[in-house]
Amino acid sequence: MSDIKRIALIIGQSFEYGRGTLRGIHKYAQDKPWLLHRQAPDDDALKFLHDWHPSGIIAFFDSSMLPQYQKLGIPLLVLSDNNEANDITRIGTDDIAVGVLAAQHLLARGLANYAYFGTKNYRFSTLREQGFREELARHGFIPNVLNVDYHSKANSSTSRWTPIYSSLREWLKKLPQPVGVMAFNDSGGMAVSDICREMGINVPRDIAIIGVDDDELRCNMAFPPLSSVKLPTEQIGYRAAQMLEHIMESPRYTPITTLLPPVQVVTRQSTDVTVVDDPDIATVLRYIKAHAKEKIDIVDILAQVPLSRRALEQRMRTILHISPLEAIHQAHMELAESLLLNTDEPLATVAQSSGFGSVNSMIRIFMQMHDISPTAYRNINRLPDDVKANRAKPATKKGNTASRAKREK
């Protein structure tokens, strides 16, 4: 019994980010002599730590609390990049990449206007806005931005939205339509969706909405269901537990920050729209969608419309900000990502079933689009036990991705 280590998890469970990281930590700890105890990151957390005397702490809290936790002198792993201190080991999400991925998803809908709904209280929102802005700027767009005073409750699934709704309602009234809105998380996306419904604004025709976290309950409670950027929360939790074990065993460790890329966009009805008035381009998009599992090329597309290759290229870049070949690759990529995440199929089968045709072609395009190989994508986004658990599990169709390789600094 003396070998048992007490591990304190100062993590809320009202949001998917906390629940997902807890699942990952639990998976890692299953064969460890660890006693896990979760405590909400509220006013009682520090008292609990003083009384319980844990061997290590994994925590997700407001950055202002960091000095008080460091004073405890207990090995500490922080689940976020919301504090810029360099003397603490942290793991979290590459939030700039989250914003880039959301922007790419909305850009592919051919929208003429873009907007970001965020909060000035959390650094992750600022970083997501930065990525969103930068990707839109590459295509000549500047988003309309609203940042509100938002504080989530650590021990509750609800937040103080009432004073925010007035500002959000006035902002949405003034946005030019059609517009694609990225919300800083799924709660923000639900707020946008609720107000649109109250005001009679059609989602996604007039306002397409994408959130962050892929909290299935929240996303499916929205009307219509909310598209969302899926974060690697279980992987973050699993890696956090690994890193804490290292810290406990190596007192002279060098603090590092590890950021994992977002997994993909899970597309639901809130962004299920492509605003294309050009009938030829609409025909092209329908063809690509219908034949995504097949190995198609530009010649196949040109056979569907009375356009030259140059005219097709120019129109698609003007309307959708991508080339015909990129549109084909994106359609194949959605299928490949789903197979890599949800099945244990070998790469050759994945390549054939997603329309790439060959493993080499799939690897080459994966590297071009994401700077990461299909195998690395699968390994990063699945825990060691997931391969067995997902064997022969049917794939489910999900959204686009712009995953970047993990970055450690």
What structural category arises from helix and sheet content?
alpha/beta
CATH architecture label of the largest domain:
3-Layer(aba) Sandwich
**Span between termini:** 38 Å
- CATH fold call of the largest domain: Rossmann fold
Helix content: 40-55%
Shape: globular
Largest sheet report: 7 strands, mixed
Q: Low-confidence parts lasting 5 or more residues at pLDDT below 50?
A: 154-159, 387-409
Total helical elements: 17
Name its key features:
Arc Repressor Mutant, subunit A; Rossmann fold; globular; alpha/beta; 45% helix; 3 domains; seven-stranded mixed sheet; disordered C terminus; 15% strand; 409 residues; six-stranded mixed sheet; 17 helices; 13 strands
Characterise the protein shown here:
This protein has 17 helices and 13 strands. The protein has 409 residues and is α/β, with parallel strands linked by helices. Helix 6 crosses helix 7 (186-199). A seven-stranded mixed β-sheet has the order 2-1-3-4-5-11-13, sandwiched between helices. Strands 7-6-8-9-10-12 form a six-stranded mixed β-sheet, with helices on both faces.
